[in-house]
TrEMBL record, chains A, B:
<feature type="binding site">
    <location>
        <position position="12"/>
    </location>
    <ligand>
        <name>a divalent metal cation</name>
    </ligand>
</feature>
<comment type="similarity">
    <text>Belongs to the SurE nucleotidase family.</text>
</comment>
<dbReference type="InterPro" id="IPR002828">
    <property type="entry name" value="SurE-like_Pase/nucleotidase"/>
</dbReference>
<dbReference type="GO" id="GO:0000166">
    <property type="term" value="F:nucleotide binding"/>
</dbReference>
<dbReference type="InterPro" id="IPR036523">
    <property type="entry name" value="SurE-like_sf"/>
</dbReference>
<feature type="binding site">
    <location>
        <position position="13"/>
    </location>
    <ligand>
        <name>a divalent metal cation</name>
    </ligand>
</feature>
<comment type="function">
    <text>Nucleotidase that shows phosphatase activity on nucleoside 5'-monophosphates.</text>
</comment>
<feature type="domain" description="Survival protein SurE-like phosphatase/nucleotidase">
    <location>
        <begin position="7"/>
        <end position="192"/>
    </location>
</feature>
<dbReference type="GO" id="GO:0008253">
    <property type="term" value="F:5'-nucleotidase activity"/>
</dbReference>
<dbReference type="InterPro" id="IPR030048">
    <property type="entry name" value="SurE"/>
</dbReference>
<protein>
    <recommendedName>
        <fullName>5'-nucleotidase SurE</fullName>
        <ecNumber>3.1.3.5</ecNumber>
    </recommendedName>
</protein>
<keyword id="KW-0479">Metal-binding</keyword>
<feature type="binding site">
    <location>
        <position position="43"/>
    </location>
    <ligand>
        <name>a divalent metal cation</name>
    </ligand>
</feature>
<feature type="binding site">
    <location>
        <position position="100"/>
    </location>
    <ligand>
        <name>a divalent metal cation</name>
    </ligand>
</feature>
<keyword id="KW-0378">Hydrolase</keyword>
<keyword id="KW-0963">Cytoplasm</keyword>
<dbReference type="Pfam" id="PF01975">
    <property type="entry name" value="SurE"/>
</dbReference>
């Protein structure tokens, strides 16, 4: 029998979140699992790293199972960096992040701690996948994602991923059976903020960030289209942010 | 005379940093300036947003000049969102972020609070530029960047930027005269971390993130090449992260 793959598991909702606990259980059936995840929720952290304060990383046992686990005081990106340099004896064969409580489709990939962990792994040359479910609730039904997570994970282990590419996988919230897995592009859209302005007991004004997502894309090849039609969406994500198509035009500017 | 453009200025080093003070002075010569910037340093915050705590935003006067200024308790992305939705009466004609104390070339664009502010503005449909100087010191010489900042800014105001594209401008640290402005792509490279592990007085282990940049790209069309040859680098940056080149291959997987 071939050697089991070494799989690094992380997330941004924190190491005790039901989403990561389910992902660990699934990964235990596929490989040797090491978990390095934040000790507290890190949602909306984007690709933050801890540059001006210290990090702690402590071995713990959250539940039964063969996995080895560490909780880390930092961001999802910090977790991947610490895992790679300080905890894992060799480069893992795969990094999976999630399962996020909430969608990371369309422009949300930019704000996503889940995807920042996957991208950090990708930067390190580790094949990586972020998994997210479009349901924010703590007791969302993660069991029904198992089949598709196994299929996608096995495909990545078998086929690898090209340099500079990681996968952003999103599951629709609907409890109906998934229609299938669809390869997509990131839908154009943005969050229209509607700040909730309040006044503190001492008279100071403060804000809560609130808002709703606005889809600006009518394409039927996007992750938003797939999710709204009950498909599991898979978007290949790159971290070369160069807008190559604009370089030639820019060269004609009077710079 | 045409109406002056409305320019939003922000950064990630905090509203009192010499880099943003210089940028404000330059922008005052070009347009009507509103500053909404973090009240404390936010370096390495990537595209973080504040979802689970409150934000404050207070009008202040940091120094002389016609600009209107607000300090905000949030991240650079929060500042742009607050400016757009709560502070500015209309959509600004331009958003400039920086001047960052330290380089944001190559893969650093991913971790950069400076660039996350520019990208956030881009998502809102505002032409945006991030400016960074490859010198971390507080008293770096920002005066010598004035000419190129004016040229690039005026070009963006005159030509606009296509939807989904913002500019990442970096200046070399060298005190020699710049050879010119060069349009580039983002160099492939990564940060190789070397965590500094220490023990607290109470016996707890903790880490400091440290590391050095490793260039993995021999191209002469990259920002790293340009900077090391004393050019000012301009990389067009997009936030559609889809790896379009990999979609067809992915469609052949057994999903």
């Amino acid at each position: 029998m071939a050697k089991k793959p070494l799989i690094l598991v992380t997330n941004d909702d924190g190491i005790t979140a039901p989403g990561i606990r389910k992902l660990i259980k699934i990964m235990n059936t596929i490989g040797e699992v090491v978990v390095v995840a934040p000790d507290s929720p890190q949602s909306g952290m984007g690709h933050a790293i801890t540059v001006d304060s210290t990090l702690t990383c402590v071995k713990i046992k959250v539940d039964d199972g063969p996995q080895i686990e560490y909780k880390c005081s930092g961001t999802p990106s910090d977790c991947v960096k610490l895992a790679r340099r300080e905890i894992l004896k060799r480069k893992p064969d795969l990094c999976v992040s999630g399962i996020n409580h909430g969608s990371n489709s369309s422009i949300s990939v930019i704000y996503s701690g889940t995807m920042s962990a996957a991208i950090e792994a990708g930067i390190e040359g580790i094949p990586a996948i972020g998994f997210s479910l479009g349901d924010f609730s703590w007791d969302a039904n993660f069991d029904r994602l198992e089949k598709e997570i196994k299929i996608i994970t096995q495909n990545v282990l078998d086929n690898g991923l090209p340099e500079g590419v990681v996968l952003n996988v999103n599951f629709p919230k609907s409890e109906n059976e998934f229609k299938g897995i669809k390869v997509c592009r990131q839908a154009r859209g943005n969050w229209v903020e509607d700040f909730d302005k309040r006044v503190s007991p001492s008279g100071k004004e403060y804000y809560w960030l609130a808002g709703k997502y606005e889809l600006l894309d009518k394409g039927e090849d996007t992750d938003e289209w797939a999710l709204s039609h009950n498909y599991v969406s898979v978007v290949p994500v790159q971290f070369d942010l160069t807008a190559h198509h604009f370089i030639q035009k820019l060269n004609n500017w009077d710079l």
